[in-house]
Amino acid sequence: MIEIGKTYSLEVLKHVDFGIYLDGDDLDEILLPERYLPEDVAEWAVGEFLDVFIYLDSEDRPIATTEVPLAEVGDCAYLTVVEKSDFGAFLDWGLMKDLLVPFKEQRVPMEVGRSYVVHLFLDNTGRIAASSRLSKFVPEQNEGDFKVLEEVDLLIASRSDLGYKAVINGTHLGLIHNNEVVRPIKAGDWVKGYIQEARDDGRINLTLQKPSLEVRGELAEKIIAYLKENGGSSDLTDKSAPADINAVFHASKSNYKKALGKLYKARLITMANKRITLIDKA
């Protein structure tokens, strides 16, 4: 079954003066206009297959293009507003025809030149549209889709008083609480994250920090390297401000204290007089 808003490899059926027709299966024959034909004529000989994206033309007929969109229906993407009209805002999504975000689908009023994370969907006429109201389309509950501590790809979507909303592996929404933001992030960033314990309402909490044991090992190595680069000592102790620790090591104060404890127990550092000092093993 061929769906609007998706990419397919379709067979060339016949040539006409204004392009070629492709086998659209249940959508019948689909036109690929002449302007989208590859330069190599052999690529679109009858019987060959072409990778094309399917959408609707101005008369609501399925039509194909060899242009590659930045996102397809069902995807979330960070796209830039290029124009506004009486219907809404238009986004650049890599195709000649810009993508509409109707006013009612804008979480906040969109501005030309700014970029937003949006979800692509088919409206009630079957046309491709986009929405920045992600919660309307993207599930927020973890119903067995992810394991606790699982590593995931995050697209940072928006900021709130609680932290940052993020799209998880392109399929779900989660929240990175402010205290879990251990390095600068902003909307549109792609980062690695980890699934935390589910909230009482089933919604997904996220962290940018690796599981504690792994973090402590890596962080301990960073601390040793930092001490070696700075004359063997530092005034960043377990009493230092979280912001100061984060600025140097991009880690929470809790994990920093645990890493220091690990180094202290291994007799690799001393902690005294508001300083940590590397023990010379020579």
Which key phrases capture this entry?
five-stranded antiparallel β-sheet; OB fold (Dihydrolipoamide Acetyltransferase, E2P); mainly beta; 37% strand; 4 domains; 282 residues
Can you describe this structure?
The strands form 4 sheets. A 5-stranded antiparallel sheet has the order 3-2-1-4-5, with no helix packed on it. Strands 8-7-6-9-10 form a 5-stranded antiparallel sheet, with no helix packed on it. The chain has 4 domains: 7-65, OB fold (Dihydrolipoamide Acetyltransferase, E2P); 76-136, Nucleic acid-binding proteins (OB fold (Dihydrolipoamide Acetyltransferase, E2P), Beta Barrel); 151-207, OB fold (Dihydrolipoamide Acetyltransferase, E2P) (Beta Barrel), CATH 2.40.50.140; 212-278, Winged helix-like DNA-binding domain superfamily/Winged helix DNA-binding domain (Arc Repressor Mutant, subunit A, Orthogonal Bundle), CATH 1.10.10.10. It has 282 residues and is mostly beta strands. The longest helix has 18 residues, at 212-229. The chain has helices at 212-229, 242-249, 253-265; strands spanning 7-16, 19-23, 29-33, 49-56, 62-65, 76-84, 88-92, 99-102, 115-122, 128-131, 151-159, 163-168, 172-177, 190-195, 204-207, 233-234, 269-272, 275-278. It has 3 helices and 18 strands.
